[in-house]
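Hi V.,

You were right to ask for the full record rather than a summary. Here it is.
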Amino acid sequence: MIKQLAHICIFSKDLVATEEFYCQALKLKKVFNFVRDNEIIGFYLQISDKSYIEVFKNDAVDSNSVSPLQHIIEELLTLIFYQEINNYLRNLADAEIASHSQRFFKTARGEYGFGDKFLGIRVPVLRKAVKKFKTIPLNTATKLLKSEFHEIRLFALLLLVSRFAKADTNEQEKIYQIYLRNTKYVNNWDLVDSSAHYIIGAYLADKDKSVLYDLLKSNLLWERRIAIMSTFYFLCKAIT
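Predicted structure:
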């Protein structure tokens, strides 16, 4: 099983656009340029302490084709960002806060939050972390949403809410679909209430709302709550 790649080499017709994507959108660090005859022919990107991407200019690259390495790079970035954020949040853990949260969110046997686990991170701290990692790939947010820890799931939802508010139509649909496919992880009242109307409600504002009736019929308490809380957006915007 491959757990880490030292480096991957990719080619690009447009080094400037490629650098903007990786360094500005994904916040990777450019370590140095490759120079030949006083011309920049590529650069070296740092993904993590031990993983790098080499980018070289190649005018023969077909910008409309999908490189066989593209999927590998996407999966690698997803894994690296996931590990970075997971470690970052775990380092913020507070055992005393976690113990209080376990009681507050009713995680004992027979209670509505049975089995949930907490790290002990306050919501303002999570919101600050969202700002720090706001440009991560949506695949990483999806992976974080499946965490066993409540605060990591909440972080993922807050990040999706933030991204949805500024996204174009295509990305908003992606976020909406991510949410619907992963409702079983939105499994406590604070997770629902901090996300449902901002994503599901906002997306369905001018669309068919039958999916809300399907959620209302669910056997899962939290899917029914998602349906109800999504309508809060309609109330705020006076949508019928």
